[in-house]
Amino acid sequence: MRPVRSSVLCRLLPTPFSPALRSLVLVLLCLTPRCQAVQAENVTVLEGGTAQISCRLQNYDGSIVVIQNPRRQTLFFNGTRALKDDRFQMVLFTPRLVRITLTNVSVSDEGGYFCQLYTDATHHQVATLSVSVPPETPTVEVKQEAVEGGEVELSCMSPRSKPAATLRWMRNGRAIPGVVSQQDNAKTFSVSSTIRIPVERKDNGAALSCEASHPALSGQKRIRHYRLDVYFAPTVRIVPPPGIMREGDSLSLTCSVTGNPLPRNIQWSKINDTLPERAEISGPTFQISRLSQLHNGTYLCQAQNNFGRAADHYTLLVYDNVSVTTTVPPTPTTQPITSHPVTPTLLTLVFSFDPKEPGAVVETHSAVPYAVIGGVLALLVFTVICVLIVTIWCSVRQKGSYRTREPILAWY
Ligand SMILES: *[C@@H]1O[C@H](CO)[C@@H](O)[C@H](O)[C@H]1NC(C)=O
Ligand SMILES: *[C@@H]1O[C@H](CO)[C@@H](O)[C@H](O)[C@H]1NC(C)=O
Ligand SMILES: *[C@@H]1O[C@H](CO)[C@@H](O)[C@H](O)[C@H]1NC(C)=O
Ligand SMILES: *[C@@H]1O[C@H](CO)[C@@H](O)[C@H](O)[C@H]1NC(C)=O
Ligand SMILES: *[C@@H]1O[C@H](CO)[C@@H](O)[C@H](O)[C@H]1NC(C)=O
Ligand SMILES: *[C@@H]1O[C@H](CO)[C@@H](O)[C@H](O)[C@H]1NC(C)=O
């Protein structure tokens, strides 16, 4: 503490005292070897930056000023370069201030720079140079792969910073606590933060980030974004064609597959049978043009990856193209194939009114009210037509014309 106080005194002295008194006080003060005729300032600079090392002189009398590096090698001897290192430049030498600059500062330049004034008693002051190394954007390493139902272990790493960077894992704006470890590698630090989180299939693609903060970044953060890659067994679903299949129709089935990794091969097969010759398979689609009843059967779509396998089936029933008795909805299930009772749908109603299907009979219960309404409507229309015909017929007879009788009779 004393050197600081006395140096402050030295600096403050010139103003309030007359030159004679000042010299006297100085002589008195400088009788103690701690009197500061040289004053240096501490400097902090970013790695790669330029440091300014200044040395303030008091009552400079023309004596020799020597500047030394932390290894006590002389950089400048009274203004003349002594050490062959072009990064050091003397930029100022006045009776009050000596200033040198050091460009492309590295952590090895850290330490105390000596500023020595060779007077009767040798005075020196030390300027401490500190180098700050901000972290690069951290990297993320997967320590344990993420498989659904398991845990993923991720490490965020910042290999080099000074002082040590602070790492923080974030997900959806919330911090995930991690296990932090720090290693001292000769002046710089390597920091890592490791998290373990349980993962499900829904977490696939979830966004995480690791933020590095550091005093030299002045509030900003270096952020590494990471997307979770969660492995999971496939799921398979056959998208059935709408409606029922008849002879001569073409069938097109699509197998929609999920999974991570996405299964590469999709296998189509027919249970207890070989695939029909006319079947065309291209990846997830399966097609048969011009169906016949021989195509009846259960078709299977299967997929697998390293984490499991899955299958779905579709039961094809090809109906006669003239008479339809029942409709079996194509229900893809993972149960053994059973023929479920008919569920009436709007679709079957459409078929029952199809004029091209005279033989079509739809056995439904909920269709009855519609049938009644239809019948009443038909009766109404019929009545209106009858009335019209009778009216026209009467008017024609009244006029005594017979020319239009034939077409009118054709309505009967
Ligand atoms: C300069 O740094 C050194 C070492 O860190 C410290 O002891 C000294 O008090 C500092 N001086 C000033 C003026 O900050
Ligand atoms: C040291 O350098 C200063 C400034 O250039 C000069 O005034 C002074 O005379 C020099 N001292 C010696 C002993 O050469
Ligand atoms: C700065 O110093 C480093 C080594 O400390 C060196 O690799 C780099 O080339 C230097 N850069 C310049 C511009 O001199
Ligand atoms: C396949 O054949 C086996 C034995 O012949 C029989 O038990 C099984 O029900 C058949 N599966 C289908 C879907 O026809
Ligand atoms: C195919 O299925 C339809 C509907 O169940 C049935 O009427 C027909 O007899 C079946 N044909 C063959 C060859 O199994
Ligand atoms: C009905 O199917 C047969 C073959 O099964 C075909 O020859 C005939 O043309 C089809 N009729 C209609 C109206 O599609």
Automatic annotation (TrEMBL):
InterPro entries: CD80_C2-set, Ig-like_dom, Ig-like_dom_sf, Ig-like_fold, Ig_sub, Ig_sub2, Ig_V-set
Subcellular compartments: Membrane
Signal peptide feature range: 1-37
One Gene Ontology cellular component annotation held by this UniProt entry: membrane
Cited Pfam families: C2-set_2 (PF08205), Ig_3 (PF13927), V-set (PF07686)
Molecular function GO terms recorded: vascular endothelial growth factor receptor 2 binding
Taxonomic superkingdom: Eukaryota
One GO BP: regulation of wound healing
Main location: membrane
UniProt topology in membrane: Single-pass membrane protein
Keyword Signal listed: yes
Key word Signal present: yes
SUPFAM superfamilies (UniProt xref): Immunoglobulin
Residues in Ig-like domain copies: 33-132, 135-224, 234-317
Residues passing through the membrane, by range: 370-396
Keyword terms of this UniProt record: Disulfide bond, Immunoglobulin domain, Membrane, Repeat, Signal, Transmembrane, Transmembrane helix
Record protein name field: Cell adhesion molecule 4 isoform X3
Organism, as annotated: Gymnodraco acuticeps
